[in-house]
Design a protein that fits this description.
Blueprint (H helix, E strand, L loop, with lengths): L50 E2 L2 E2 L11 H29 L4 H29 L4 H6 L1 E4 L9 H8 L10 H19 L6 H6 L2 E4 L1
Antiparallel strand pairs: 1-2, 3-4
Helix pairs in contact: 1-2, 2-4
Length: about 210
């Protein structure tokens, strides 16, 4: 007849010390120590990295997003510079297209490229090279890319500007552009990263420089 198995040792009510390496082991069954809700045994998880809505702050010098009112003021400054030149160019193009039907067509087509060219020079070029328009420089702001790119570079700067092309559609383009502006204004004050539609298309966020 085989010998009976020895009884288990009595519980001491003490959790065994952690082994070398510092990782606590779960207590044995019946020891009287049970993990509390949300408590786990094993390696401690790494601390969470701080972020600004998905942009890692530890890798970018603790960036701080721009205040919505700062962005509105920056855009107003840009408008003071950009709009007068735009209308002067529009008047020149319009005057060139009053002599004949062919001249009107040429002026309309050429005018589209001239006005887009001015918008490209004022917005895309400085954003690609510095991440700042004149208004952003005055207010101490800059745009950074989805991976912290600063300056943005040409692909991101062009994507961010792409919605502006809609404005060249006769009549309808201006109406759509106004809607884009109004929606962007609402998003500026409601989005957790204060992004406009242009920011969402380009994957950018505007921060304090």
């Amino acid at each position: 007849m085989p010998a009976a198995a020895p009884p288990p040792p009595p519980s001491t009510g003490v959790t065994p010390p952690p082994p070398p390496g510092g990782f606590a082991q779960p207590p044995p069954p019946g020891s009287g120590f049970e993990p509390q809700s949300g408590q786990s045994f094993g390696a401690n998880p790494p601390p969470a990295q701080p972020s600004l809505g998905g942009y890692a702050t530890n890798a970018m010098g603790n960036v701080t997003k721009a205040e919505p009112i700062q962005r509105v003021l920056a855009r107003l400054i840009d408008g003071v510079i950009w709009i007068p030149v735009y209308f002067i160019l529009a008047l020149i193009v319009g005057a060139a297209g009053t002599t004949s039907d062919a001249a009107n067509v040429a002026a309309n087509v050429g005018g589209i490229f001239i006005l887009l060219g001015w918008a490209f020079l004022y917005d895309v070029v400085p954003m690609a090279l510095r991440g700042q328009t004149v208004g952003k420089m005055v207010l101490g702001l800059k745009a950074i890319g989805p991976n912290g790119e600063s300056p943005l570079g040409w692909p991101i700067a062009f994507k961010r500007w792409a919605l502006t092309i809609i404005a060249v559609i006769p009549l309808l383009g201006i109406f759509i552009h106004l809607i884009i502006g109004l929606v962007s204004l609402v998003l500026l004050f409601s989005d957790d990263r204060s992004r406009t539609l242009h920011d969402m298309v380009g994957g950018t966020i505007v921060v304090k420089a």
